[in-house]
Amino acid sequence: MRLPLLFAGILVAGLTGCGYIGEPLPPALKRPGRVTDLAAVERGSNLIVQFTVPTLTTEGLPIPADAAIELFVGAAPAGEFQTDAWQKSAERFTDISKDQPVALKEIPAMKYYGKTVVIALQVLGPKGRSAGWSNFETVPVIPALPMPVGVTPADAPDAIRLEWRAAAPEFRIFRKAPDEVGFMQVGTSTMTSYTDNTIDYGKTYQYFVQSVEKTDNKYAESDLSATVTFMPVDKFPPAVPTGLTAVPGARTIELAWERSGERDFAGYNVYRNGQKIAENLTAPAYSDKNVEPGMRYQYQVSALDMVGNESAKSAAIESGIQ
Question: Residue 24: is its pLDDT beyond 80?
Fold first, then answer.
């Protein structure tokens, strides 16, 4: 039987316009992704907890707006760790913002002094669904370390020397140089002083210091000291030249000495009988041609740096020609 033209067109459109109809997909569970980078440290009188806030569910969909974060902090139980038992006795925090890519939570630490705490969290979607616990962080908590005070910078030979006051077993020193975006740790010290010998004169540097104490494999930290700013000035002469020798020639006296290793070395001055006879020499040698037979002369050498600081004179050495 031949179909009327109108119905034939509808049939063709239906066959060519529809795709394959498969099995219906199950509803998305909307479980937020699990946090895997939770980190915690004791700083001053607080526990600082930080982690990246998930943005997608386990199905790869945007995280629901009503997702909630539950953070738990509790003392580590004796014996084998049992998550359920720890959770029941742990303190629960829910006032954590999801508006920033990285969440930060400060928790007063005093109640945990002398204890080791375990910290973990879950991100909950609709109906309390979760992809599971974050990584667990264990932190030994000690009484708050004193913040370093009175940080004082001063000039030192090719360096800046810092001193401060605080009673702690170790300190971290942080510095920001003119060509650096932020502060970087430049060293540690077990004393209340530190010498930074990686500086350049005439540049401005900023520093702060932090007390630290290691327990097990974790460091407790103090609050950061006040930041100090300092521009070092080179007012230190180079080392006195050594190894001066004087060898008489036919009509000259040939002087030689050991080469300076100073990084800001600029040159040498030569003295005869206390009077300067040559200056700004770059080589550790000099030929004195203004000498007379039968005369004795005393020679000394000094070193100069880039800004004109002059060392003391070397020990005098005597020579002459026949």
Answer: no
Does one domain contain both 60 and 114?
A: yes
CATH number of 105's domain: 2.60.40.10
Nearest to 105 by CA among 72, 136, 128, 74: 72
| 252 occurs within a structural domain | yes
d(CA 243, CA 256): 8
Predicted model pTM: 0.77
Last residue in a domain, options 119, 140, 161: 140
In a domain, 70, yes or no: yes
Q: For residue 180, what is the enclosing H or E element?
A: none
Over residues 255-280, the pLDDT tens digits come to 999 998 887 899 999 999 999 999 99
Chain-centre distance for alpha carbon 155: 22
Contacts with 127 (C-beta within 8 Å, 6 or more apart), sequence order: none
- Domain identity same for 109 and 161: no
Instruction: Show Cβ contacts of residue 5 under 8 Å, excluding neighbours closer than 6 positions.
Output: none
Burial class for 88, CB neighbours closer than 10 Å (0-12, 13-18, 19+) = exposed
pLDDT digits (tens, 9 = 90+) for 148-158: 999 999 999 88
Domains contained in the chain, number: 3
| b/e map 254-279, b = 16+ CB within 10 Å | ebbbeebebebbbbbbbbbeeeeebe
Helix (H, G, I), strand (E, B) or coil at 87: helix
* Boundaries of domain holding 315: 245-320
